[in-house]
Structure formats: C-alpha cells, structure tokens
Design brief:
The chain has twelve helices and seven strands. 41% of the residues are buried. The structure holds S-adenosylmethionine.
C-alpha cells in the first residue's frame, strides 16, 4: 500500500514531523483543531489526524486536493472493487496512442508506459461517468496512479524538465492507499487560495508552509495536474506544460510579503506556526527567499511575541548537495500574547 508520505515533493516536511510535534507539545499542549493551509502532500496535517480532532487541509493545486481527499476525507469506498480495478490496470498493455503518450511518451516515461498511463486515466474517467465508481473511489485511483508513476518518472523528482536519455522499459505498479477512515471523521479539505480561505475558517493551530522562493509548484507538478484534471489542454515548450497562469502562487512573486501580511492579519487562530527556509540571499536567484526575516518578525509580531525554533534538515532538493547552513526553522506565535 502507498502511505501518504511515499511521493517526492519539493519542500515536503516528512522528515521534520517530530520537530514540529515537539514544538506543539511544549508550547501548546492539547488542541482541538489544526489547519494545514499550504498542505502539499498533507503529511503535516495527517500526522496530527485523529477522530476527536478537526483537521483542515488546503492546497492551490488540484492533484494535491484530490490526493488529500483520497487519504483524508471521511467518505466511504469499496476497497475490494478498487483492488480489482488496480489489479486489472496493472495487467493492462496497449499499443494505442493517446493524449498522454503523444505528449509525454519518450520524454517523462517510456512510450509503452505513457500509453498505459493514458489508457488507465481514460478508464478511470469512464468508470466515474458510468457510475461504476463514486467520487472517493475515483480520488483513490487517481492518487494511486500519481504515486505509482512518480516511482518511474524520468526526472529528478519533479516535472520542470525530463532527463534526456534513452528510456529503459521499467514497469510501474499501482497500489491501494493506506487510508484510516476512522480518523477522518471531522476533516475538511479545500482547493482554494490560502488568503481567500483564511477569511472563512477558524482553528486552534494554524500551520503555514508557503513556498519560499520563486519556484512555482504549478511548474514543478504540471504533469500531475494535467493527468488528474484530464482536460487535455494544448501544451507548450520542451517540458510540455499547459497554461498555468491561474494557479501561479503569489508567495513565489515579489508580492509575497504583502500576501503574507494579509494572511496573518486575517488569521483566526490561537497559535500560528510558520515554516520558512533560511536561504536568504545565499543561494542562486531562484532559491532566494521571497520574504525577509525582518518582514517575518514584523508581520508575525503584529499578532504576538515571536519565537523561533531551528533544526538541521536534509531537504529534498532534487539530488543536489545539501547546503551546510540548511536549517529548518519554525516561527511560533501565541496570538494575543
Ligand atoms: C512548501 S509546499 C508545502 C509542503 C507540505 N507541508 C508537505 O509537507 O508536503 C507549499 C505548498 O503551498 C501550495 N500553495 C502555494 N501558494 C498557495 C496559495 N496561495 N494557497 C494555497 N496553497 C498554495 C503549493 O501548491 C505547495 O503545495
């Protein structure tokens, strides 16, 4: 089975979950509701998931929304039916071309695998349209497909580019997801801009993990967005990307500080935790942090006294050497203190 953390995702916080947990234990203690408003994979909110808690998840990208629903919404599904479908998908082989193979075959995947991925996606679409599967079952199958192709993609871990080389035929295997529905009772999942959603929600603990540099997640994961949405848009450039104007994040632009201030001012939470990398101006242009430390302290300081916690963190940075000074930092504010 696939666990929620078993995918490659830039800036994912899988390896610092105990660090975040310790801060919460020491500074907050028990709480009823937690909001992971820049969820990405959802590993942080999922770590605190429990039947007696309300966990709010949200991400701007649609494939993350689908994955969060698959693992974490309380809806029911027929596990045996999904296992049967996964089994038949894994055995599928086709020589027919489709949207996915024409655009991504011999690039991100071998031609055979790309044909198979496109054919599976078409079958999931048909099964949903014919009411053979419900919404939750569709979300599980799509997420299983996304997790399984991540294991064989001809990339360094994201889809900004593919590696130019002759592709070997490697098989991929879809698997059931490891879902514990008993914990999901009160979860809420959104696909909205965080600055928009913040005006409609309240929580005890607000965890913020926005992108910190100019690298757009919609560029890095366009292929998974495309496969999940399956609207077959026209694609441009060598990397075969669709028009992503509507899913560009303000947190990757020069407007980041203004947006962050708006988010913090409008937050209705008892405690705020912020993960923000410390690359400052030391990395290359694209790595430079969009919000300065001075602005982080000033803005969080509008809501209370700011504390900072630091831990060494081996970041998933597409395989390049780890920077010596790469510390993971969590800023903490008790609102009103
Ligand atoms: C650093 S990643 C979060 C990683 C996540 N904590 C994890 O462990 O997987 C930042 C996420 O914020 C999302 N994002 C960027 N701008 C957003 C916005 N304005 N509203 C909601 N989500 C946004 C991106 O799609 C990305 O998934």
């Amino acid at each position: 089975m696939f666990n929620i953390s078993q995918r490659r995702y830039l800036g994912n916080k899988s390896s610092i979950l105990p660090f975040i947990e310790n801060i919460i234990r020491d500074e907050i203690g028990d709480f009823d509701s937690f909001c992971d408003i820049f969820s990405g994979t959802g590993v942080v909110g999922s770590y605190f998931n429990a039947s007696h808690k309300t966990i709010i998840f949200n991400d701007l990208l649609y494939h993350n929304f689908v994955s969060l629903n698959a693992f974490l919404n309380p809806e029911s599904f027929d596990k045996d039916k999904i296992l049967e479908m996964i089994d038949s998908f894994n055995k599928l082989s086709t020589a027919e071309e489709n949207y996915f193979s024409v655009n991504f075959g011999n690039r991100y995947f071998s031609l055979n695998n790309a044909r198979k991925i496109g054919a599976i996606r078409e079958k999931i679409k048909r099964a949903f349209l014919e009411n053979t599967i419900n919404k939750k079952e569709k979300e599980i199958l799509l997420t299983s497909l996304n997790y399984s192709i991540d294991k064989i993609a001809n990339t360094v871990g994201h889809y900004d580019a593919y590696i130019k080389k002759d592709l070997k035929e490697v098989g991929f295997e879809m698997k059931m997801l490891n879902i514990d529905r008993t914990k999901n009772t009160n979860n809420k999942i959104y696909n909205r801009d965080a600055n928009n959603l913040i005006r409609d929600i309240e929580c005890d603990v607000l965890y913020l993990d926005p992108p910190y540099n100019s690298r757009q997640y919609s560029d890095a994961y366009h292929l998974l967005e495309n496969l999940t949405l399956w609207q077959k848009p026209e694609l441009k450039g060598v990397a075969k990307k669709f028009d992503r104007t509507h899913i560009k994040s303000e947190y990757c632009k020069t407007t980041a500080t203004k947006n962050f201030e708006d988010l913090i001012i409008n937050a209705k939470a008892k405690y705020i935790l912020l993960s923000y990398n410390n690359m400052g101006n030391k990395g290359n242009g694209r790595s430079n942090a969009r919000i300065s430390d001075a602005d982080i302290f000033r803005i969080l300081g509008l809501r209370g006294h700011v504390k900072v916690f630091e831990q060494e963190h081996k970041e998933f940075n597409t395989g390049r050497r780890k920077r010596d000074d790469n510390k993971e930092r969590v800023f903490f504010v008790e609102v009103g203190e």
